[in-house]
């Protein structure tokens, strides 16, 4: 299994704080069936700044420690960049890191409670630069939950999205779980990942999430999401069915 979103790098954000923490997370990932993981530390979210070169060095160091510890996990470089007006300049200046540093997929994170008005234009501009934006955990964004047409518009114009394993399994609550299922049913999401920060409150649960996928949608949906994770690593085009609009729902008690 491939996990394309994690905070396993030590001492760079609110994920693993020490190398020992990272190794414990790596062991937990392997136990969950993960053999390849993309480290995606926060960048430009108002608290953390992790530029491309630093991430590449940190990933190389972590892989050496994994080899010494004989933990069968491969860590690839990535970055979770909070949407901001200078993202194009960041890509051009080689500060923003595409996933794996080989393909053209770029994580884009929205604030938890809003979608900036310039988001659609910026996502389009990212594509004009030759990159494919992947919106991370849209199911946990307050404005998207209240106005899912926003996500429909962005996906219709070429953006991809990644849901969180814990959202699908219900660890973020029943309302977010319900909305996550609606995104799957409307072809508004293409990838699933752990967004793991530690081994306790924010763990992996990828196997559980794939079990939920299989139970509710059958083996073909499991295959779709698993293959798309492989496509991200290889830099290939993702499989995606035509997105469908979701009727506006009123969710109470989410936040």
Automatic annotation (TrEMBL):
- Keywords on this record? Hydrolase, Protein phosphatase
- Which InterPro entries does the annotation name? Caps_polysacc_synth_CpsB/CapC (IPR016667), Pol/histidinol_Pase-like (IPR016195)
Kindly give the Pfam families that the UniProt entry links to this protein. Answer: CpsB_CapC
Which chemical reaction does it catalyze?
O-phospho-L-tyrosyl-[protein] + H2O = L-tyrosyl-[protein] + phosphate
Class of the enzyme per the UniProt entry, highest EC level: hydrolase
Which GO MF term does the entry hold, naming one?
manganese ion binding
Q: Might you give the EC number(s) for this enzyme?
A: 3.1.3.48
Which SUPFAM superfamilies does the record cross-reference, listed alphabetically? Answer: PHP domain-like
Family the entry assigns: Belongs to the metallo-dependent hydrolases superfamily. CpsB/CapC family.
Spell out the protein name for this chain: Tyrosine-protein phosphatase
- This protein's species is Halobacillus andaensis
């Amino acid at each position: 299994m491939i996990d394309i979103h994690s905070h396993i790098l030590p001492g760079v954000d609110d994920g693993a704080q020490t190398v020992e923490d990272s190794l414990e997370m790596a062991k937990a990932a392997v136990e969950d069936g993960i053999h390849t993981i993309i480290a995606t530390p926060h960048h430009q979210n108002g608290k953390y700044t992790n530029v491309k070169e630093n991430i590449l060095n940190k990933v190389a160091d972590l892989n050496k420690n994994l080899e010494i510890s004989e933990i069968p996990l491969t860590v690839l470089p990535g970055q979770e960049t909070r949407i901001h007006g200078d993202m194009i300049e960041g890509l051009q200046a080689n500060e923003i890191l595409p996933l794996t540093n080989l393909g053209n997929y770029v994580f884009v994170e929205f604030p938890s409670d809003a979608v900036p008005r310039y988001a659609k234009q910026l996502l389009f501009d990212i594509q004009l630069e030759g990159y494919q934006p992947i919106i991370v955990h849209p199911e946990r964004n307050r404005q998207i939950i209240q106005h899912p047409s926003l996500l429909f518009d962005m996906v219709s114009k070429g953006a991809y999205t990644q849901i969180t394993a814990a959202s699908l399994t219900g660890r973020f609550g029943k309302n977010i779980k319900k909305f996550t299922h609606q995104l799957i049913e409307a072809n508004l999401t293409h990838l699933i990942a752990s967004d793991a920060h530690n081994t306790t409150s924010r763990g992996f649960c990828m196997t559980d999430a794939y079990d939920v996928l299989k139970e509710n949608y059958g083996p073909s949906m499991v295959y779709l999401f698993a293959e798309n994770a492989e496509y991200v690593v290889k830099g290939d085009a993702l499989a995606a069915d035509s997105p469908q609009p979701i009727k506006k729902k009123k969710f109470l008690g989410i936040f």
